Amino acid sequence: ELPPSEFMQVADSTWLVLSVVSNGREASGCQATGVTKIARSVIAPLAEHHVSVLMLSTYQTDFILVRERDLPVVIRTLAGEFDIYKEESGERVPVTCDDVSNGFLKPKAAASPTLHPVQSPQTRFCVLTVAPDTLPAIATVLIDVLFYSHSPPREAGAGSQDLDSITFFAFSLIEGYISIVMDAETQKRFPSDLLLTSSTGELWRMVRIGGQPLGFDECGIVAQIAEPLAAADISAYYISTFNFDHALVPEDGIAEVIQLLRQRQESGR
């Protein structure tokens, strides 16, 4: 429904959403656990089979987007570890490898993935949700933050490894569930009694991946972050965007995260 515009860029591929659930249920709890739990079982195998993914963590759960044309490889790769279903008219229908065998290609020999630079701004972020029926009460502030408050992003050099701050605001509305990521200063503009977060009120720091826009064809970008953090049992809240990827980690663990990623960077050279 969006009118064509010279200001709008649209990726060529159509993407499908994978939602990883446990025992047939969505992940319970009211706090993002991030990509750590699915790094070894989903993210790493897909990277090894040359499947490019977009990752979207929300307050409630995590979603993996894969290109529609890669679905046969995705099913073949994950069928040994998971029961896989597709939604038809609101019902879950089992999917087997035979259903998607057409077009399946065996993976090529694994190539060494590119290890992209990471930047860690000093900005502190909050991961929040809001009850849908209270959304009108914050609509005015939300519109102002989304469309009017932020100045155009300043250009950062491709070799820049350290940012003082970063402008980042993510709002998602998925099946009625609202998830918001905003910096701690922006949070002060919203009514505190309407924004829900974990009982600890934990703040997060960001690691931004890529010194320039990443594109959609390269594989292993999410794995570059997810695998070392999973090995260290560090949760990460991960959001892929059109230009860059972003991982949020608990503030008190940012030093360890940067050290782990730098070690991986050095070992990959």
Walk me through this protein's architecture.
- This protein has 269 residues and is an alpha+beta fold.
- It has a domain at 118-215 and 246-268.
- Helix content is 22%, strand content 23%.
- The chain contains six helices and 13 strands.
- It has helices at residues 39-48, 71-78, 135-147, 184-187, 221-231, 254-267, and strands spanning 15-19, 53-57, 62-67, 85-88, 91-94, 118-119, 124-130, 170-174, 177-183, 195-196, 204-209, 237-240, 245-250.
- Strands 6, 7, 8, 9, 10, 11, 12 and 13 form an eight-stranded antiparallel β-sheet that branches.
- Strand 12 and strand 13 form a beta hairpin.
- Helix 1 packs across helix 2 (71-78), helix 1 (39-48) packs antiparallel against helix 5 and helix 5 crosses helix 6 (254-267).
- The longest helix has 14 residues, at 254-267.
- The chain is globular and about 50 Å long.
- It starts with 14 loop residues before the first strand and ends with a helix.
- Residues 27-32 and 156-162 have low confidence and may be disordered.
Which helices and strands appear, and what pairs or packs with what?
Layout: E1 15-19, H1 39-48, E2 53-57, E3 62-67, H2 71-78, E4 85-88, E5 91-94, E6 118-119, E7 124-130, H3 135-147, E8 170-174, E9 177-183, H4 184-187, E10 195-196, E11 204-209, H5 221-231, E12 237-240, E13 245-250, H6 254-267
Antiparallel strand pairs: 1-3, 2-3, 4-5, 6-11, 7-9, 7-10, 7-11, 8-9, 11-13, 12-13
Helix pairs in contact: 1-2, 1-5, 5-6
